[in-house]
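Marked as duplicate of an earlier ticket. Keeping the data here for the record.
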Amino acid sequence: MFKKLTLSAAALCVAATPMLAAEATATTDLNFREGPGPEFAVVGVIPGLEQAEVEGCMEEGAWCKISYNGETGWAHRSYLSGSATEATKVTTTRTVTYTREGGNEGAGAAAGAVAGGAVLGTIIGGPAAIAAGVVLGANAGGNAVPAPETRTVTYVTENPVDPIYLDGEVVLGAGIPEDVTIYPVPESEYSYLNVNGQDVLVREDRTIVYIYR
């Protein structure tokens, strides 16, 4: 049995024609996923300031269907800009349809968990949050930190924690809500957690500064 979700579209600064996808710029290194939600596996990453083709966006949601480097998936609209110089909100006139077989089975156990109420909150802002007049240059990777020490990488990988799911996308500079548990890394200035299926390091202010890809 198929569960069909019809996603009606909303607006890009240059409207897409029925035969031509619109282009949008990733305002930071941006995951794109198998489906429109944080529970779906990551297909790939659009590097910051690179362009992807947008087939359509959800009208009452935050996800757009995109193509990048020969791969297709779903990316979070908050980090897609309709301009190469300003973070202007991405919209498109196209309508896209998503079909999942067998309810949540098509997305695996993680999707079932999220559908069962495991979304705990919303990722806070981030360097590429859509706002009029925001110039992208400093946003793409501007909050990155040097690669963590080997002992930090080893500790995080050898001490996995259960994933938590938040509305939004895992990007550098985004914040973790105060009511979400983070785990200190011994002898390190960082803590860590698994957000939407990816391990991340956060500073004391709960800002994401490193993403394990």
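See parent ticket for discussion. Helices lie at 108-118, 150-158.
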